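Record Putative pterin-4-alpha-carbinolamine dehydratase, 97 aa.
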Amino acid sequence: MAQLLSDIEINSQIGQLPDWSVVGQEIQMVRKFKDFIAAIDFVNKLVEPAEAAGHHPDIAISYNKVTITLTTHDAGGLTQKDFDLAQVISQLSRIWV
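=>
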């Protein structure tokens, strides 16, 4: 099982991810796209990196707004896996916005 990060580690890493915020024991990113199709295209691009990492985000779609939430459920909070995948998602989101 992945090891939980300390508050100091979380604060350090979230500072390197300006698109993300800490919400309780999760990190979250919200992105708006030009329309529903662009939002769905972006979400579809997340499948491969999530599968490769063996770590899957919670995703909510509301028309052109996508909310992505990461936490490591089996560890009960935030681990390095969350921040690694957040970095990949941030890079992908810059292509689609």
